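Handout, page 2. Input:
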Amino acid sequence: MSHDAHFGADAAQRAADAVRRHVGPVDEPMLAIVLGSGLGGLAARIADARAVSFADVPGFPSATVAGHAGRIIVGQLAGRPVIALAGRFHMYEGHDAAHAGFPVRVLHALGARTLFVSNAAGGINPDFAPGDLMIVTDHLNLMFRNALVGTVVAGDERFPDMSEPYDSRLIELLRRQAASLGLAMREGVYCGLLGPTYETPAEVRMLRVLGADAVGMSTVPEVVVARAMGMRVAGVSCITNLASGVSPTPLSHAEVIETTARIATQFEALIERFVGSL
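Output:
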């Protein structure tokens, strides 16, 4: 079976049809939103929400990570039609990169042309503190896998330009909306690693040399797939902890969830403002 048969355009269309069967007609979304670890609370702000579990969508595994609900939610945010993914697939769960990026194909098949990605990340930049929100300006793919490897998927660019993976106009919009809320945002480069181990102090020193400001285990496959399909992308990392060696305390997933809970309200207000301004 080809790569396209598993996670390509036809599979995405089948998944999108299944979503519509469960939630009814889907208005063309102004924005598709991927909610990272601990950031699923935004779902509660979606009006007229209709949801389908990942388990009911062909090609979607069940979410297995704490802080990830595993639902697709359709509704209105700030009066605009949106579609949100509460949870995502991680390569460390055993999914290949094409599968990790597959939900974005489904969001595209449901009409979304702009993608907002969020994640929980470790701060590498020594100026960052837990609880900071970072606008992602660029990324480093150190997962050593690319979501586009294999036969080219119908509708994809074979060699997508990645000179601006995160749309500069959307970044400017995020800056303006953050300023209007009085949020002091960070900006920087997100590095995607495979995981599931947190980084060693030596790895963190390496990443700092390479120009990473924050590090996590997701997002990159989704952005790569979105760009191959011509979607515009914006992203925010929630800096939940300082990467090892930056801070003396050991890292835990519980700390990640605790920090996202603390700053979720700011994050949610920002995304609501952002959607309203599109």
